[in-house]
Amino acid sequence: MIKLTVDATIDSLDIILEKLEEMLDDREFSPKSMMQMHVAIEELFVNIAHYAYPEDAPGKADIDMDIDSDNVVTMVFRDSGQPYNPLAKEDPDVTLSAEERDIGGLGIFMAKKSLDSMEYEYVNNQNVLTIKKKFV
Question: Is-contact 39 111, C-beta < 8 A?
């Protein structure tokens, strides 16, 4: 298991992705699995970096990542920022053109479609988002 505490800023995204790749380094997976996980992590962490904390008082994010014997990667994102459940917003209607759709929500939608599961809870004044992806 890898445990990280990073600044909740865009600059920390590369650190998270590097640690994921280090964890998976000795295993062979399809480029599709890796790309799906990268997209999901980017969308989810960018939300934390942009919206969890006030701009003048950036905070921290804790990330735990692990892979089990069935090649299921589990990542848990925790932050003490504003409560925000990314699963509460209704999925965008992707059958509509970009001009007809409401702004926002597409990134979370893409993350949900890329992952096998995503769960949110607010515990001890923290946002806790758990994602899982089976790598093939």
Answer: yes
List, as one string, the DSSP characters of 57-82.
Answer: S--EEEEEEEE-TT-EEEEEEEE-SS
- pTM of the full structure: 0.87
Contact present, 16 and 63 (Cβ < 8 Å): yes
- Largest interatomic CA distance in the chain: 45
Length of the chain in terms of residues written: 136
Higher pLDDT, 93 or 54: 54
- The DSSP bridge pattern shows strands 2-7 and 60-67 to be antiparallel
Map out the domains of the chain as residue ranges: 2-134
- The closest alpha carbon to 128, from 90, 88, 91, 85, belongs to 85
- Token output for 84: 């925000």
Q: Is the CATH code 3.30.9.10 the one for domain 2-134? A: no
Residue 67's nearest CA partner among 116, 132, 13 is 132
The larger pLDDT score, comparing residue 119 to residue 26, is at: 119
Question: pLDDT per residue over 57-84, tens digit each?
Answer: 889 999 999 999 999 999 999 999 999 9
The torsion angles phi and psi of 99, rounded to 5 degrees, stand at: -70, -30
